[in-house]
Design a protein that fits this description.
The chain is mainly beta and 432 residues long. Helix content is 7%, strand content 40%. It contains two helices and 32 strands. The strands form seven sheets. A six-stranded mixed sheet has the order 2-28-27-26-25-30, with no helix packed on it. A five-stranded mixed sheet has the order 1-24-23-22-21, with no helix packed on it.
Length: 432
C-alpha cells in the first residue's frame, strides 16, 4: 500500500505546531496527544447514563461492489467552462496563512495566523452573505497558562475550538454560542470549557452540527489508554463539561476525523475489537441516533468520509489488492443514496479533503485539482485557482450537502509589473 498523503489537518499540525514549539523552546510535537482524569471521569458518567449507538450497526455486512458497477471521469463528458455549472457568489481576501472550515450555508470558521508567537493564532468568522470576516476570539482563553488556539469549527449557531499547551502536554475544548453572522459583525458568546485532557488521548478532532459541538477522542497508540474505546462526544454550544455526552463508542481508534453533514455527523468507527472492518455511520445531531450505516470490506480504512446527496462518500489514500470494484485509491460514492447496490463513481486521484455536495454536484479535492461531478448525467468540470499556488491548487473548505461551497488558497505571488500579493484568497460558489 502507498504511503499516507499529507492532509490539510497535517498541514495545520505542521504550521501551528512547529511555530508553537519554536516559541516555547521545545523540539517535539508529541504533546498533541492528550487526556486527563477529569475527561475520563466525565466519559464514565456519560456512558452510565447514555446507551451506545454502536449496537445499531452490529448486523451490517461488508458492501460488495463489482468492478463493472464503478465508473470514473473517463466515463464522463468534460465541461470546458466551469461557469456552465457553478458561479462565483462572493469573494474574500484574508491574511496569508488563514485556514477555513465551512460547515453550513452561512459562515466559515477561520483560523487566523498572528504576526507574533503570542498569541499564535486567533479565530474569525466569515459571513457568506456579507463577505465580511469578524475576529471573534483574539487569544486563547488559557493564554496566561501557555495555551494557544489550535483548531476550530463553527456554524450559524456556535463555535467549538481546541486550545493546547504543547509544552506541558495539555489540551482543552471550549464552545460558545454565535450570533450576528447575517449582519456586519459576528458576536461570540461566553466561552465555556467542554473537556480537557493530557497525555493518553490524541488531540480531539472537531465537528459541528445544529446546536452542538462534537469531538472525537482516540487513544494514543502505545499509550496507557491504547486499549480504550474511541469516543464521539457531543455538547450543546455554551453548555458546561458536565453536560457532555458519549454519542458513539468505537472498539479501537476510528479511521478518520468526523465530518459535518446537513443534519448530523458522519464517522468511521471500527466494527469491533477483533475486527479489521470499519463502519461508516451517520448520526443525527439532535437525537444522537444512527440514521444510516455501511460497512467497508475487511482492512479498508478510509482517509476521509462524508455524507450528502448521494449518501455516504469515502476516500482511500492507499491501493488495496482486492478483487473488488472498491479497492483503488480515490473517492467513492454511490450515484443515488437509495440504491447503493447500483452504480458507483470513483474520482481516482489522491484525496486531500472530505468531499462535499452543492446541488447536483459532488465536489472533490485531489492533490492539485478541485472537480465537480454530476453523477446522474455523468459530466464533470475542474477548477483553476485565481492566482498561482505552490502546486496544491485550492483547498475545499466545505463538507456535507450545502447550497454554497467554499474554496481557498494561500498565495504568495508577484504579477508582472505589479506589487507582490500575499493573502488567503477565499471564493464562495453556488450551482449555476
Amino acid at each position: 500500500m502507498q504511503k499516507r498523503t499529507l492532509t490539510r489537518r497535517d498541514f495545520v499540525r505542521g504550521t501551528v505546531g512547529v511555530a508553537a514549539a519554536a516559541a516555547l523552546g521545545t523540539s517535539g510535537l508529541a504533546s498533541t496527544a492528550c487526556s486527563s482524569s477529569k475527561t475520563v471521569d466525565a466519559v464514565d458518567a456519560a456512558s452510565a447514563s447514555d446507551s451506545s449507538t454502536a449496537s445499531q450497526t452490529s448486523a451490517l455486512s461488508p458492501i460488495e461492489v463489482t468492478q463493472d458497477r464503478v465508473f470514473t471521469t473517463e466515463g464522463c463528458s468534460y465541461i470546458e467552462n466551469p461557469a456552465e455549472a457553478i458561479t462565483l457568489a462572493a469573494q474574500a481576501h484574508l491574511p496569508y496563512g488563514t485556514m477555513l472550515w465551512a460547515s453550513d450555508d452561512d459562515c466559515a470558521a477561520c483560523l487566523l495566523p498572528c504576526e507574533t508567537s503570542n498569541p499564535l493564532t486567533k479565530v474569525g468568522i466569515l459571513s457568506f452573505d456579507t463577505g465580511k470576516m469578524t475576529t471573534v476570539l483574539e487569544t486563547a482563553v488559557g493564554a496566561d497558562s501557555g495555551f494557544a488556539i489550535y483548531d476550530v469549527r463553527a456554524n450559524r449557531q456556535g463555535v467549538i475550538w481546541t486550545e493546547s499547551d504543547i509544552l506541558n502536554q495539555k489540551w482543552r475544548i471550549y464552545t460558545a454560542t454565535l450570533s450576528g453572522i447575517m449582519t456586519d459583525a459576528a458576536i461570540l458568546g461566553t466561552p465555556v470549557l467542554a473537556a480537557e485532557g493530557t497525555g493518553d488521548w490524541q488531540l480531539p478532532e472537531l465537528a459541528v452540527s445544529g446546536g452542538y459541538g462534537f469531538w472525537q477522542l482516540c487513544p494514543t497508540p502505545d499509550g496507557p489508554a491504547e486499549k480504550e474505546d474511541s469516543l464521539l462526544m457531543r455538547n450543546a454550544f455554551g453548555a458546561p463539561d458536565t453536560e457532555a455526552k458519549v454519542i458513539y463508542e468505537s472498539a479501537g481508534s476510528m479511521a478518520c476525523a468526523p465530518s459535518t453533514t446537513a443534519s448530523g455527523i458522519a464517522i468511521a468507527p471500527r466494527d469491533d475489537a477483533s475486527s479489521k472492518r470499519y463502519i461508516l455511520a451517520h448520526i443525527d445531531a439532535e437525537s444522537g441516533q444512527v440514521t444510516d450505516a455501511m460497512m467497508l470490506p475487511t482492512s479498508m480504512r478510509p482517509a476521509f468520509i462524508a455524507y450528502g446527496t448521494s449518501g455516504f462518500s469515502f476516500a482511500f489514500d492507499s491501493i488495496y489488492n482486492f478483487d473488488n470494484g472498491i479497492s483503488n485509491l480515490g473517492t467513492y460514492t454511490p450515484v443515488t443514496a437509495d440504491a447503493p447496490e447500483g452504480e458507483w463513481f470513483c474520482f481516482s486521484r489522491t484525496p486531500y479533503t472530505d468531499p462535499a455536495w452543492c446541488g447536483n454536484w459532488l465536489i472533490v479535492k485531489s492533490t492539485s485539482v478541485i472537480a465537480g461531478i454530476d453523477l446522474a448525467n455523468k459530466r464533470y468540470f475542474t477548477m483553476s485557482p485565481e492566482y498561482a499556488t505552490q502546486g496544491y491548487g485550492e483547498f475545499l473548505a466545505s463538507t456535507g450537502a450545502t447550497k454554497r461551497f467554499v474554496t481557498y488558497s494561500n498565495i504568495d505571488y508577484t504579477p508582472l509589473n505589479s506589487n507582490r500579493i500575499t493573502e488567503c484568497n477565499v471564493r464562495i460558489w453556488q450551482a449555476a
